[in-house]
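Changelog note: in this version the structure field was regenerated for every chain. One regenerated record is shown below for reference.
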Amino acid sequence: MKAVALRLRPLVPLLLAAAPAFAAEQVRIAVAVDRPSLEVAGAGLGARPLADGAALRPLPAGRALLELRDGGLHLDGEPLDAAGVLLSADGPLRLEGKPVEGALEIRRGAAGLDAVLALPMEDYVAAVVEGEMPLSFPPEALKAQAVAARSFALAKKLEALAEGRSWHLGATVLHQVLGAGEDRRAREAARATAGEVLVRGHEPLAAYFHSVCGGRTERGADALGRDDPHLAPVRCGRCESAPRRRWTARVPAAELGRAAGLSRPVTSVRVVARSPTGRAARLSLAAGREAAVIAAADLRQRLGWERLPSLWFEASLSRGAVVFRGRGAGHGAGMCQWGAAGHARQGRAHAWILRHYYPGADVVRMY
């Protein structure tokens, strides 16, 4: 199949109306949400209320405690007549003891304090490439990851603007995991694809991805509850060398019973419903006279996503434990990262890889 050519398209007005060049495009990352209080520290720490053009006020102690009291924001015990505060330092900040790069906004959120980090889009993309994909993968696979990360961020940015939320994405596995973004290979993947976005029409697509599909990707509706056309299942055929292409997990029968809400160890387990691709949808478990039917996705979450790498498994009892034998790692929808690497090693360009894993999508340069 021929690689997709890049074509210029108009900017998405809601995203870029105030951005004369791509350097101005930013993404806002929530690094903490709905906290009763937050502590920030850093050398040369300074603060100023948001929407206030005044200079930063030095905080000589090099730390700041932000709290919500009586419905208002307080900085080191003093009330602030503002919706939030901007904090900056001479070097990296530490939020609750963890380092963050750049200036940090602390705002009143829906149910507490939100800490929001604003990053230039291409710095963010490089950080996602570093955090989400092995940097030993071929350059075209890293480029595909960069475009997927940028597309996901822009799609989430549109959602946030529509909902009136002050941040666009989180920084966990539920959104996109961030690395430092300093590795040369990650930065080159972001630079080489700067402004490239997966679209249908003119709208950026939420380009979900996962580690290993195990041979075939999953439908978005079954994996994520998103019945998006670009998340249709496709044959992969290039992730055979992945470490978790096949896996086995043993869970003690008593632990599995507790996870399913049963009072005793499991005495039988059976997959009673599967998705069209063969992944488990519901399981029936019994412990003597007790029985429960549980969604496979709920069970995976309760046991831990790493403990049960995917939902493509068989389950059986063996010597006081339930043995899961499965394939793949992750939710299975969208791009298979190990498959992308396999296609890249076969000489496929990043645009071809993206079109393969996101049917009906196109790659365009939006800014």
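Spot check on this record: The first helix runs from residue 13 to 16. The first strand starts at residue 7 and ends at 8.
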